[in-house]
């Protein structure tokens, strides 16, 4: 079985870029690599409904923390066969967002921390009831909220397919999410963690292959 690594961070933190750099660096070392990005917009109906809610559709759906959390969890649950197949066929499997994002955003929306009931609910739902594989390691990109939010807005201005949603527009929420992420790192929630950016982030993941 391969190693499962989740790359976490705020919207605009550069997760897609770092995942690509890790893929290239791991392949250069002779490792077989696969990656999957969550939410799977355009592929998963639950992910698409969640996205639509974040852009003002489906009434008051987005107001429910647990309803939104369930939609994102169901997206990952539907991808469980893909994850297990990837782990069986590759040395390294990278997830651009995984369960920790659900834990961090839900806790932050409720004004709570990493020790809250909703974080336990996410773990029990996704790893317990849905049987998702637990990551071997998780990486939090150390990009401050102000920087990440600026990048997200700039990206939306140049890419019509990636408009900012209600979470991304909420600067207070983004700061709370980053704080909860930090607490997850400090408690080694569900696995070991690294908190890094740039070249150091890439090296932290490559070290897992050793």
UniProtKB/TrEMBL annotation:
<keyword id="KW-0545">Nucleotide biosynthesis</keyword>
<dbReference type="InterPro" id="IPR018095">
    <property type="entry name" value="Thymidylate_kin_CS"/>
</dbReference>
<dbReference type="InterPro" id="IPR027417">
    <property type="entry name" value="P-loop_NTPase"/>
</dbReference>
<comment type="function">
    <text>Phosphorylation of dTMP to form dTDP in both de novo and salvage pathways of dTTP synthesis.</text>
</comment>
<keyword id="KW-0418">Kinase</keyword>
<keyword id="KW-0808">Transferase</keyword>
<dbReference type="Pfam" id="PF02223">
    <property type="entry name" value="Thymidylate_kin"/>
</dbReference>
<dbReference type="InterPro" id="IPR039430">
    <property type="entry name" value="Thymidylate_kin-like_dom"/>
</dbReference>
<dbReference type="GO" id="GO:0004798">
    <property type="term" value="F:dTMP kinase activity"/>
</dbReference>
<comment type="similarity">
    <text>Belongs to the thymidylate kinase family.</text>
</comment>
<dbReference type="GO" id="GO:0006233">
    <property type="term" value="P:dTDP biosynthetic process"/>
</dbReference>
<protein>
    <recommendedName>
        <fullName>Thymidylate kinase</fullName>
        <ecNumber>2.7.4.9</ecNumber>
    </recommendedName>
</protein>
<dbReference type="GO" id="GO:0005524">
    <property type="term" value="F:ATP binding"/>
</dbReference>
<feature type="domain" description="Thymidylate kinase-like">
    <location>
        <begin position="7"/>
        <end position="192"/>
    </location>
</feature>
<keyword id="KW-0547">Nucleotide-binding</keyword>
<dbReference type="InterPro" id="IPR018094">
    <property type="entry name" value="Thymidylate_kinase"/>
</dbReference>
<dbReference type="GO" id="GO:0006235">
    <property type="term" value="P:dTTP biosynthetic process"/>
</dbReference>
<dbReference type="GO" id="GO:0005829">
    <property type="term" value="C:cytosol"/>
</dbReference>
<dbReference type="GO" id="GO:0006227">
    <property type="term" value="P:dUDP biosynthetic process"/>
</dbReference>
<keyword id="KW-0067">ATP-binding</keyword>
């Amino acid at each position: 079985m391969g190693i499962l690594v989740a790359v976490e961070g705020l919207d605009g933190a550069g997760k897609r870029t770092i995942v690509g750099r890790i893929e290239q660096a791991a392949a250069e070392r002779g490792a077989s690599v696969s990656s999957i990005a969550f939410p799977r917009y355009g592929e998963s109906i639950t992910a698409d409904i969640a996205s639509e809610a974040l852009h003002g559709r489906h009434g008051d759906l987005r107001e429910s923390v647990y309803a939104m959390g369930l939609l994102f969890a169901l997206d990952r649950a539907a991808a469980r066969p893909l994850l297990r197949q990837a782990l069986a066929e590759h040395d390294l499997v990278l997830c651009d967002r995984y369960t920790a994002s659900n834990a961090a955003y839900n806790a932050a929306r409720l004004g709570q921390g990493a020790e809250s009931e909703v974080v336990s609910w996410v773990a029990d739902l996704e790893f317990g009831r849905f049987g998702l594989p637990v990551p071997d390691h998780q990486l939090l990109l150390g990009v401050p909220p102000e920087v990440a939010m600026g990048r997200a807005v700039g990206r939306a201005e140049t890419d019509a397919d990636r408009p900012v949603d209600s979470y991304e527009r909420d600067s207070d929420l983004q700061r709370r999410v980053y704080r909860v992420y930090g607490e997850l790192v400090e408690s080694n929630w569900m696995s070991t963690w690294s908190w890094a950016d740039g070249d150091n982030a890439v090296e932290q993941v490559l070290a897992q292959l050793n």
